[in-house]
Amino acid sequence: MRLLLINPNTSQSMTDRMMKTALTCAHPATQVRAVTASEGVPYIATRAEAQLAGSTLLAMLADNRSECDAAIVGAFGDPGLLGARELFDIPVIGLAEAAMLSACMLGGRFGIVTFAPVLRHWFQDCVAMHGLTGRCSGVRTPDANPRGDVAMVQEEIEEHLVELCRKAVEEDGADVIIPAGAPLTGLAAKIRDRVSVPVVDQVVAAVKQAEAIVALNVKPASAGGFRRPDAKPSSGLSEPLAAWLAHQESMPSVTTLRPRTMGGEG
C-alpha cells in the first residue's frame, strides 16, 4: 500500500521526525511518503491555527490523492480530519484518534502528556470531538511554553515529560500514556521502561491503523454522515481541491501549495 503522511504545518524537521518513526514501524510492503505544508505556521498550537491547517490539509490531500491509498494527518489535534474523510474516497487517519483508540484497547483511561500548556484546550477539544472524554484522565503539560526550537523540545525536557507521565498515572489514574504532538514522536520508545503503564506512540498507532483499515478493503460511504457531498462549484481554491469539490478530480493536477516531499519504503 501507498501511505501519505501529511504535515499541515511548515516545519520540515517535524516531518523528518515523524517520517523516521513511520519508516521504523511500517510493514515492508508499505511505501511511505511525506509532504510538508509551505503555508501556515511552524507548529499548530491553537484552535485558530488548527482551522487554517485544516484548509491546508484538504488542499494537500487533493493534490496528492492519486498517489496514495491512505493518508495520515500529521498533527495531534487532527485538523481537517473529518472534512477529509467526508470529501475523499480513501482512509484518512488522525494521529490523535489513532493513538487514543489504540490506548483504549490497552486500558480503561488514557492520559495525554504534551510539551506546552497552550496546547491543552485544543487537545481537550480533540478528545471531545472523537467522543472519548470519558476515557481520558486529563492533559498534562509543563508550566510554560517552549522558548527555543519546538522540534528539539523532546530532548530538552525529556526528564520533565517522564515526570508528567508518572503524575498522570499516580494522580490522574491513567492506565495508558500518550506523548502528544509531533515533536514528541519517538519518545514512547525511549521512556517505556521509565513509565509503569503502556506508552503509545502517535505515529506508530496511525501507521498501523492505516494499514489495518486498508486491509479491511471497505468501499467508500454512499450514505450517512460521511457520504461524499454533492458536486459544488467554488472560487479561489487550488485547482485540485476545486476539482474534488466539483467531482472533476480526473482533471490534471496543479500543485499550488508546492509541498516539500520526502519518501521511502518501510
What secondary-structure arrangement, pairings included, does this model have?
Elements: E1 2-7, H1 12-25, E2 31-36, H2 47-64, E3 70-73, H3 81-87, E4 92-94, H4 95-104, E5 110-113, H5 120-129, E6 136-140, H6 153-156, H7 158-170, E7 176-179, H8 187-191, H9 202-216, H10 239-245, E8 260-265
Parallel strand pairs: 1-2, 1-3, 3-4, 5-6, 5-7
Antiparallel strand pairs: 2-8
Helix pairs in contact: 1-9, 2-10, 4-9
How would you characterize the overall build of this protein?
With 266 residues, this protein is of the alpha/beta class. The chain has 2 domains: 2-96 and 207-265, Rossmann fold (3-Layer(aba) Sandwich); 107-200, Rossmann fold (3-Layer(aba) Sandwich), CATH 3.40.50. Helix content is 39%, strand content 14%. The chain has helices at 12-25, 47-64, 81-87, 95-104, 120-129, 153-156, 158-170, 187-191, 202-216, 239-245; strands at 2-7, 31-36, 70-73, 92-94, 110-113, 136-140, 176-179, 260-265. The strands form 2 sheets. It has a 5-stranded mixed β-sheet, with helices on both faces. It has a 3-stranded parallel β-sheet with strand order 6-5-7, with helices on both faces. The protein is globular. Mean pLDDT is 92; it is low at 251-260.
